[in-house]
Amino acid sequence: DTAVSQTPKYLVTQMGNDKSIKCEQNLGHDTMYWYKQDSKKFLKIMFSYNNKELIINETVPNRFSPKSPDKAHLNLHINSLELGDSAVYFCASSQDTRTGELFFGEGSRLTVL
Amino acid sequence: GNSVTQMEGPVTLSEEAFLTINCTYTATGYPSLFWYVQYPGEGLQLLLKATKADDKGSNKGFEATYRKETTSFHLEKGSVQVSDSAVYFCALRRNNNNDMRFGAGTRLTVKP
Fold this sequence. Notes:
The complex is a heterodimer. Chain A is mostly beta strands. Chain A has no helices and eleven strands. By secondary structure, chain B is mainly β.
């Protein structure tokens, strides 16, 4: 069983389109995250939710909208895709907001043409 | 603010060579420190961690010691293998603080 799973693994789309990436964790964790990894492998946190509540919202364009229907799921919707959105997006979870490691999904590679 | 600085790569070593990847941090309070590894095409996996000063994390032959006096958490392995080729990330998480901060990553290539 995959602990943190995200779909799709690959996304290729045109500029201006809207796309979503889904994430699910079966670890019973309270906290979930979205990170963006650029082509140089730099990891930047985008959002964090704890028990469906948004607790971190870094400086990210409004075109990115996270949604957490329950604490096991955190989806990322991106409107009006731009070339610069091309990256690998990682979902992660942790037991809570305070301590401990993050568990990562395998990533979703988004390519905007 | 909290931040992590790790040595720039890429690092290329021959099999069985000794590995050191330097990592230093800036943080208020007493953070937990982590090393993650990312194999090609995969997500990040926790390699080892340490939660307080002088703790040593170890896994798969890798070690790192939490040094408060030098604010460092250097990763070492005595004898690397081709299968260790990956990108390694140092990270910190302040206790009672939500987000985890990552270093820029160091790409390691081990040649046979």
